[in-house]
Amino acid sequence: MSALFKVCEAACCDSLRDVRHATLTALGERGGCVAKILSQRLRISDADIATDLMAGIGMLGATNAESILYSFLADCVFPNVSRNLAVSGRMPSNRPGWQAMEIVIADNNSRAVRLVLSALSVLGYKRILGL
Question: Is the pTM of this model over 0.70?
C-alpha cells in the first residue's frame, strides 16, 4: 500500500472537515499519480467526504477532473436517481408504512443533487450556479 493511499485513507477518516479538505486538496496538487487513489474513494457513502475528494480531484486539472467526475456521476449518482424515481412511482401513496421509504428516497435524492452541484462547482461552474 502506497504512502499516498495511506494519507488519503487517513484524511477520509478525519472528523475535522478543514483537515480532511486541506489534505485531499494537497493530494490532488500532486497530479496524476493520485488520480486513481482519489477517484476510487469517491464511492464513499458520506457526501461530505465525497465533496472533499472532489475538491482534490479538481486540483488534477480540468481535463482529468472532468473525466473522473463525469464517470463517477454517470456510474454511481445518476443510476441511483433513476432507481429512486422508478421506486417512487410504484409506492402506494398515503400509506403510513411507506413513509420511511419516502424519507430514504428523499435523502438519497438530496445527496445526489449535492454531489452533482459539488462536481459542477469543482469544474468551474460555481458562478453560473450562483453557489
Answer: yes
